[in-house]
Amino acid sequence: MCAFRLRHALASRCIVSSEFLEKRLRVSSETPCPYIAGRTEIQAFAVFKPEELKPFSQQMNRMGFRRSMNTAYIPICPGCRACQSVRVLVDKFQPSRSFRRVQRNNIDLRFRAVTPEYTEENYALFHQYLRARHPDSDMNTIDADYFRRLVQIVPQDAFLLCAYDAEDRLLAVAMVDDFDDGLSAVYSFFDPTMPKRSLGLMMVLEIIARARLLGKPYVYLGYYIAEAPNMAYKTRFAPLECYNWQSQDWQEFSDD
Question: Would you say residue 21 has pLDDT above 70?
Answer without folding.
Answer: no
